[in-house]
Specification:
alpha/beta, six-stranded mixed sheet, three-stranded antiparallel sheet
């Protein structure tokens, strides 16, 4: 009983100092990969980089302690991070306090849903996400994730558009206008280090080496170069007016947003339909005004970002900035291109942030995050619930797939429901430590397995090392270039691209391949609204399942050269004129009961000499009331047409239904046979009496038996 609640007790069997040492080294190796990866994934989720570290110290340990896999490495992963950003971006500005609070609440929701599924032993619900759907979604997600990092790689800032492909077009346009080449080369160097080390020395943590090398270069060369000036230092005409117009536009949004919020609160209290219509109209007007102001703000923000300046040092340490398009004044510049940093807030004319270098991670709060129960907002929960369900299922599917692959190599017993409990608790308790949703990582789990991890203590050591990094080493990460984190993400998601998955699905069933391709296309088209793409895939899968259930295989069988009964149409076999051996494949229930009737009626009309129908029930594994009623009508229809009917291979569950409904008495015990062979041998002579068929395609074995007599 104790092991049921604390599965990690099993680890202590035959545990010694040698296995402890192996687990420690494995945990250390995973931590060296996890720390830079988690920071990159946090930014992919729209959070400050250090929230990746917050998501890396409690979840790995909790998931290992209460899960069933001993080598699964839990923490921030690419797809879940992307889904987090997709679910939160409509609710709050990326990186804002509200956005962070919603991300933490989302982790709690995901964890609660996973934990509930595990407790109720409903792990099989993940099967609603079929392999073709997941393959199409994962390939699309990999492309979306990789392309979303292009702005950091080129060192440009842009506003996100309604669709991901529009955002990428903006990135390309901005990069053509201006690319910060030191940023680009820093990302390219990180790519080169990771790729070369992965090829020639796979045991060396290539991500860590790339981070250390580029951070040292960033620190040594002064990669980040920022300064603060007032508007008088910008000497070019038109810049100040543009900033002032931008400020006025952004400032006008706030009061309108407040009025819309107040109107929304009033709307919730009203019951009179006319009053509700009036207030709703007022809200719509505010929304339209805000939308127009936001479009204008975006236009001015883009104009400000496109300003490229030369910096000239004046007298007594003063700095002057001139647009590169200004006529040359014979002044010496510092050789850098400077830009104004602009976000969604008004720009202070006394404190204008100028950037002449690349973007770095910057200050990371030292120490552990504050612990507490996430704030609960019921209105937001209802909006995020569909995303929480999708993230829960996707995250668990990723985790359990990795765990199963490793269990096949280690011979370990895996319990999917226990793994759900472990993943659920990891997200729940992680949210108490300001974590966003996490899952099992394929790359880090592979590192953990290759490093020789024996038990979940390796993940416990990983968590401890992340805690040490948070307490003592965060200042060392200040100069880590953002382009390097982008390179880390792009390198990691390359492994998610699996073109052969489309081919494999198509070869298995053409419609599976089609579903995979359609899911891929719509996920790309609807991005960043990733839920739409995956829901289309799920609906298509369910649609195919329902269609196949409503129209199961109904085939006439004949004897093949190998003496087995096979589909006469597919194998181009002759059919008996007098006996039709019909095989029905699937559960006989309300959705397909009439289909069976139609198919038998077709055969009665098509075969004028038909005398006996044998229904091979081997494929009918269950039957409901509608199926039983349809079977009764079929018997009446067939016998009223002067044709006899028999059944073979009825299983126990179907036989129970026949007995309870007294349909068995209607069929007649002498018309029930255990096998198709015995049914044919029994009815053959009667059905062929007076017939002109020289050789029955069904009865090779029967003829041999009769000859021997």
């Amino acid at each position: 009983m104790l092991k049921l609640f604390f599965p990690f007790i099993e680890w202590f069997k035959d545990y010694n100092s040698e296995t402890l040492r192996t687990d420690f080294l494995s945990g250390l190796t995973v931590a060296l990969v996890l720390i830079p990866q988690s920071m990159a994934y946090a930014q992919l989720a729209g959070l400050p980089a250090y929230y990746g570290l917050y998501a890396s110290f409690l979840p790995p340990m909790i998931a290992a302690l209460f899960g069933s896999s001993r080598q699964l490495a839990t923490g921030p992963v690419a797809v879940v991070s992307l889904m987090t950003a997709a679910s939160l971006s409509p609710l709050a500005s990326t990186g804002s306090e509200g956005y962070i609070a919603y991300a933490i609440m989302l982790a709690l929701m995901v964890g609660a849903f996973q934990f509930l599924l595990g407790i109720l032993r409903l792990g099989l619900v993940v099967n609603f996400l079929s392999h073709p759907v997941v393959n199409g979604f994962t390939n699309a997600a990999a492309i979306i994730i990789a392309s979303s990092q292009l702005s950091k790689l080129f060192g440009v800032n842009i506003d996100k558009a309604a669709h991901h492909y529009e955002t990428i077009m903006r990135v390309i346009t901005a990069a053509i206008h201006y690319t910060h080449w030191p940023t680009f080369f820093m990302g390219a160097l990180a790519f080169a280090i990771m790729y070369i080390l992965k090829r020639i020395a796979p045991k060396i943590p290539n991500v860590l080496v790339a981070v250390v090398v580029t951070t040292l270069i960033s620190w040594g060369t002064g990669f980040e170069k920022n300064t603060v000036v007032d508007i008088s230092s910008i000497k070019s005409e038109g810049v100040g007016e543009t900033i002032q117009t931008f400020n006025e536009t952004v400032t006008a949004i706030t009061p309108l947003s407040e009025k819309r919020t107040e109107a929304g609160k009033i709307l919730d209290t009203l019951h009179d339909p006319i009053e509700r219509i009036n207030v709703q109209h007022e809200i719509n007007v505010y929304s339209l005004q805000i939308e127009l102001l936001e479009k204008n703000a975006q236009k001015y923000r883009e104009k400000i970002r496109n300003f490229l300046f030369n910096k000239v040092n004046g007298t007594q340490g003063s700095m002057n900035f001139y647009l590169k398009t200004d006529p040359e004044n014979g002044l010496d510049t510092d050789g850098r291109t400077w830009r104004i940093k602009v976000k969604n807030n008004p720009i202070s004319l006394d404190n204008i942030n100028m950037s002449g270098g690349g973007a770095v991670v910057g200050n990371i709060p030292k120490g552990l995050p504050s612990f507490g129960i996430p704030q609960i907002n019921l209105k937001i929960i209802t909006q995020m619930f569909p995303y929480a369900v999708i993230i829960s299922l996707l995250g668990f599917m990723e985790a359990i797939s990795i765990a199963k692959a490793m269990a096949a190599k280690t011979g370990q017993r895996l319990d999917p429901n226990q793994e759900l409990i472990g993943q659920g608790l990891a997200n729940i308790l992680g949210s108490f430590g300001r974590s966003y949703p996490v899952s099992g990582s394929f790359s880090r789990s592979a590192v953990n397995l290759q490093a020789g991890a024996i038990s979940g203590f390796s993940s416990v050591f990983t968590s401890c090392i992340v805690v040490i990094a948070l307490l003592f080493f965060t200042p060392l990460l200040y100069h880590l270039p953002q382009a390097v984190l982008a390179a880390v993400i792009m390198m990691a998601v390359i492994g998610l691209i699996n073109v052969s998955g489309f081919i494999h699905a198509w070869r298995a069933q053409w419609y599976d391949g089609a579903i995979s391709i359609i899911t891929f296309i719509f996920t790309l088209a609807f991005a960043p609204h990733l839920d739409k793409g995956i829901m289309i895939g799920v609906l298509l899968s369910l649609g195919v399942f329902l269609y196949k259930s409503m129209r199961p295989g109904v085939s006439s069988l004949s004897r093949h050269t190998d003496e087995d009964f096979r589909d006469s149409m597919i194998n181009e076999l002759m059919e008996c004129e007098y006996v039709d051996l019909i095989r029905f494949e699937g559960t006989l229930f309300f959705a397909n009961a009439s289909y069976l009737e139609d198919k038998i009626n077709e055969r009665i009309l098509a075969k004028k000499n038909l005398r006996h129908i044998i229904i091979a029930c081997n494929g009918i594994n269950d039957m409901d009331a509608s199926g039983e009623e349809a079977l009764s009508l079929v018997i009446d229809r067939v016998r009223s047409a002067g044709i006899d009917i028999s059944f073979s291979g009825i299983n126990e569950s179907v036989m129970t239904v026949l007995e309870r409904t007294h349909l068995l008495e209607k069929i007649g015990p002498r018309h029930i046979y255990p096998t198709m062979e015995k049914a044919i041998c029994s009815v053959h002579e009667t059905a062929h009496k007076g017939g002109a068929e020289a050789q029955c395609p069904l009865t090779t074995v029967c003829h041999i038996a009769q000859t021997m007599k």
